[in-house]
Design a protein that fits this description.
The chain is of the alpha+beta class and 829 residues long. Among the domains are: 319 residues, 3-Layer(aba) Sandwich (Kinesin); 194 residues, Glutathione S-transferase Yfyf (Class Pi), Chain A, domain 2, CATH 1.20.1050. It has 21 helices and 22 strands. Strands 1, 5, 6, 7, 8, 9, 12, 15, 16, 17 and 18 form an 11-stranded mixed sheet that branches. A 3-stranded antiparallel sheet has the order 2-3-4, with helices on one face. A two-stranded antiparallel ribbon has the order 10-11. Strand 10 and strand 11 form a beta hairpin. The protein is elongated and about 120 Å long. 29% of the residues are buried. The C terminus is likely disordered. The protein binds adenosine-5'-triphosphate.
């Protein structure tokens, strides 16, 4: 029942008295309602706003009730729920001497008058014995909060196990560190509070009584043995199933909170230590009241739990997911009537605190891992069975063995050196392994390359002044701006020879550089600077650090010849493979931009192949258009089929509702309308199949045409590349161009041929889309829209791309076309 509570349960208990103020306190017959009538206090004057009549209604009132009745009525269910995984809190609140400790612990010397805690312990172990299918662990802690300090009432026991340091700082338990209230995702706990395993009822009771003896008690005007602290006895339960090897188990805690008694100092006239204690008690109870008010108010966002140790510790124990019970202990005597009203008011507020108990389930990580491992094994077996049934027994789901890794590496190595044409794909793991091997090999190569470079050269980061300074110190002739003597401009890293070799006379080097600049200047004055706007004048390659570039000096005859016009007015190539004298002369100065040269090439030397490319593209475009129309037609047919099916279904339902009409043979007779619809459906299906086959064939043609277009384009680019290299570049130039032209292109990396023309990517994308459309023709509109968007994007990207490096990949095989598709132009090589 308690697990379904929506509010904290609150009961009132009057301690027995022979002087019950019947004229002031009326307990109604429902045993829930209490009316209290106060007498006007003459000390407050004739005119005052004192409320004299109060009516309270709690969940129940105990008057002269036996301990057993109290326990069975309010506590038993909460204790049972704790074994199911629900947290529970049982709290006694009230005036000093009102019977809180009696209710909570009872008279320790009398079994009959034992209180809630011993009864709960007894019930717990009884029920644990009954729950044979569960292994339930019981642990106990007992602490008190005295004058805002926390003390472990069981801290001195030999089996004390602390969550961190030992606890307390009271004289009784001199310990190094004070206890601290801590919170984590599992709830609130006290760091430093000892926890004790209790294997049976007796052990648990021993712990209770041991703690009782350590409580702070003092004689008080209203109670000979008044508790001067808040005491919290906690039982921690952990319940695991014995029958199921389940990673899931429940944990719960039962808090028994015996609060210190409130008192009016003006009335009790407490003095000295008792007064100080009372002040602490009243203050913390007032914070508790604030918390309760905040919890009871829906509009309140902040609950001031951290104002006191008590409220902080009770943060997850009042309402919330916890079964909470408050027993408001009261005096029935007339002199205490104001305190009784005050206690009733607190109790009524507590009734408004919401409580939504829930089971605390946790997962044992070790068991969970085991369970998941078992599940993986099970799934693997299922997969293996499935693969065997579908003739895919090659597939393995185990991690790659060392032998397999070695084989993959060997394959990749052979693939890279060209002795293997293709890597056979066996399964996903092998693909992943292959990629990893590529990555490893790439990293190895990079490291090896750097090591080799470092062995031979000194690498200087030109953007790093410290690196430059270090190089200068090592004797490398390098200027403060990072440029090296005799170095080519434009690189971000300087590559100099090792210090020994580089110990050239720096003043001579500077002179050399000056002379070089002078020569450049003169050459410029003769009108022989680069024709490309914005391009830097070519630095003299003959002065490179390695001295390997062979560009003719400005004084060579080649350079003295007039520079050819690169806008195409004069053809730079006389015949394929034959580079004219005029062409050779172009090498002496900066070559034209590849973009402009390519445009020129397409209209001149490469005009024939360009023409074939254009025609093939036109044929491809027209086939794609037909494909799109056909797909649209198929879509229409598909819609018509769906509609006809719906109509037929309606007619069938109608026919069945009207009752079937049968002929003599017992066959169902259908209406003419239904017959016609069936006929129509047949025709539509035939049409759909025919057109679908057509679409399929057309798709093959498109794929073939696409290949031819690709081949043409590749050929055009290769031709251009050869022509450009022969016409304008020396081998050193080629190297330089490949490093310098492609932005972000790494030395030695050849730009993939597909990136040479942006439409390659576009057309590849379109091809993929067409393939998808083939599978689901009804998605044509969707994919078409996608293509349009993609085209727009590709166009935008192409417009903003830097000039690509037109480089022919070494060893690229020359393509030839063997089969000519109908209506396609064949490339003649
Ligand atoms: N229901 C009851 N039946 C019999 N005796 C009771 C009952 N309630 C209280 N008493 C007795 O009244 C005295 C004071 O009770 P108790 O110590 O429980 O009060 P308390 O509220 O805990 O006071 P304090 O706040 O000072 O600790 C005890 O001697 C106790 O035995």
């Amino acid at each position: 029942m308690s697990s379904r509570n929506r509010k904290v349960r609150v009961w009132g208990r009057f301690r027995p008295t022979t002087n019950f103020a019947n004229e002031n306190i009326e307990i109604l017959n429902d045993s829930k309602s209490v009316n209290v009538h106060l007498r006007r206090d003459p000390k407050k004057g004739v005119v005052n706003n004192q409320i004299l009549d109060w009516s309270f209604k709690l969940d129940g009132i105990f008057n002269n009730a036996d301990q057993e009745v109290v326990y069975n009525t309010v506590a038993s269910d909460i204790v049972s729920s704790a074994l199911d995984g629900y947290n529970g809190t049982l709290m006694c609140y009230g005036q000093t001497g009102a019977g809180k400790t009696f209710t909570m612990t009872g008279a320790t010397e009398s079994y009959r008058h034992r209180g809630l805690i011993p009864r709960a312990i007894s019930q717990l172990f009884r029920q644990i014995e009954d729950r044979l299918e569960y292994s339930i662990t019981v642990r106990v802690s007992y602490m008190e909060i005295y004058n805002e300090g926390m003390f472990d009432l069981l801290g001195q026991l030999p089996d004390a196990a602390w969550s961190s340091a030992t606890s307390g700082n009271r004289d009784l338990f001199p310990t190094p560190d004070p206890m601290v209230v801590t919170e984590n995702q599992d709830g609130v706990f006290v760091k430093g509070l000892s926890c004790h395993l209790a294997q049976n009822e007796e052990e648990a009771l021993n712990l209770l009584f041991e703690g009782e003896t350590n409580r702070s008690i003092a004689a008080h005007q209203l109670n000979k043995q008044s508790s001067r602290s808040h005491c919290i006895f906690t039982v921690y339960l952990e319940s695991r199933s014995r029958t199921q090897s389940n990673a899931k188990y429940t944990v719960s805690k039962l808090n028994f909170v015996d609060l210190a008694g409130s008192e009016r100092l003006s009335k009790t006239k407490s003095e000295g230590k008792t007064k100080e204690e009372a002040m602490y008690i009243n203050k913390s109870l007032s914070f508790l009241e604030q918390v309760v008010i905040a919890l009871a108010s829906r509009s309140r966002e902040h609950v001031p739990f951290r104002q006191s140790k008590l409220t902080h510790y009770l943060k997850d124990s009042i309402g919330g997911n916890c079964n909470t019970l408050l027993i408001a202990n009261m005096w029935g005597d007339r002199p205490q009537i104001e305190e009784t009203v005050s206690t009733m008011r607190f109790a009524t507020r507590m009734m408004c605190v919401a409580s939504e108990p829930c089971i605390n389930e946790v997962y044992d990580p070790a068991l969970l891992v085991k369970k998941l491992q078992r599940e993986i094994q099970h799934l693997k077996s299922e997969l293996a069975m499935h693969d065997t049934l579908t003739n895919r027994s090659m597939i393995s789901y185990d991690p790659l063995s060392e032998q397999q890794k070695y084989e993959i590496r060997t394959q990749v190595q052979r693939y890279l050196d060209g002795s293997l044409d293709e890597i056979d794909i066996v399964n996903l793991r092998q693909i992943v392994g292959t990629f990893e091997t590529f990555k490893d090999m790439y990293n190895d190569m990079e490291r090896e390359m750097e090591t080799r470079l470092r062995e031979k050269y000194m690498l200087v980061d030109k953007t790093d002044p410290a690196s430059i300074a270090a190089a200068q110190q090592a004797g490398v002739p390098i200027a403060d701006d990072g440029s090296m003597v005799g170095e080519l401009e434009g690189g971000s890293y300087g590559l100099g020879q090792a210090p020994k070799a580089m110990k050239a006379d720096s003043s001579a080097a500077v002179q050399l550089k000056k002379k070089e600049r002078e020569r450049e200047r003169k050459r410029g004055s003769r009108g022989q600077t680069s024709p490309v706007a914005g391009q830097k004048p070519s630095s003299s390659p003959s002065h490179s650090a390695k001295g390997e570039r062979k560009v003719e000096s400005p004084t060579t005859p080649a350079e003295k010849e007039p520079r050819p016009d690169v806008d195409g007015s004069a053809s730079p190539v006389s015949s394929a493979g034959n580079v004219s004298r005029q062409e050779k002369s172009q090498r002496a100065s900066t070559p034209p931009s590849r973009t402009s040269a390519f445009e020129e090439f397409k209209t001149d030397r490469g005009s024939e192949i360009n023409r074939i490319l254009i025609e093939n593209k036109e044929i491809l475009a027209s086939k794609k258009k037909t494909y799109s129309e056909l797909a649209g037609h198929i879509n229409g047919t598909k819609n018509a089929i769906d509609q006809t099916r719906q109509t037929l279904e309606k007619l069938r339902i109608q026919r069945e509702a009207d009752g079937p009409i049968l002929n003599e043979d017992g066959d169902i007779i259908i209406s003419e309308e239904e017959f016609l619809e069936i006929q129509r459906l047949k025709d539509l299906k035939t049409n759909y199949r025919t057109k679908y086959d057509e679409l399929h064939n057309l798709k093959s043609e498109i794929t073939y045409c696409q290949k031819l277009v690709d081949q043409c384009r590749l050929r055009l680019i290769q031709e251009f590349d050869n022509w450009y290299s022969e016409s304008f570049l020396t081998s050193a130039d080629e190297n330089q161009t490949s490093l310098g032209v492609g932005h972000g292109v790494r030395p030695g990396v050849v730009v993939p041929i597909t990136s040479l023309a942006t439409e390659d990517e576009q057309e590849k994308f379109e091809r993929l889309q067409l393939e998808l459309m083939m599978n689901t023709p009804e998605s044509a509109a969707f994919y078409n829209a996608q293509m349009r968007t993609s085209r727009r994007k590709t166009y935008g990207a192409a417009m903003s791309q830097p000039q690509p490096a037109y480089r022919r990949k070494p060893g690229t095989p020359v393509m030839s076309v063997r089969n000519q598709p109908p209506g396609m132009m064949q490339v003649q090589y």
